[in-house]
TrEMBL record:
Residues 7-31 form the UPF0033 domain. Belongs to the sulfur carrier protein TusA family. InterPro entries: TusA-like, TusA-like_sf. This is Sulfurtransferase TusA family protein.
Length: 75
């Protein structure tokens, strides 16, 4: 999946992955994809709720080697 921007939020704990994701997605145009890498296990629920409340869409997510990866389409 082609992301317009990749955000490295590894090693950050709540609420920083959300704060950084919010700032990064503001730099994108509607419909563009932001790829987020996080290690905070709470990021899965946090980002899902945040995306829904902001009319964004998590189009995919994976976990490999304790790194959560999310692809968020800007609404």
């Amino acid at each position: 999946m082609e992301a317009a921007k990749v955000l490295d939020a590894k090693g950050l704990s709540c609420p920083m992955p959300i704060v950084k994701t919010k700032k990064a997605i503001e730099e994108l145009e509607a419909g563009e994809i932001l790829e987020v890498h996080a290690t905070d296990k709470g990021a899965k629920n946090d980002l899902t709720a945040w995306a829904k409340s902001g009319s964004h869409e998590i189009v995919d997510s994976t976990e490999e080697d304790d790194v959560l990866k999310f692809w968020i389409k800007k609404g």
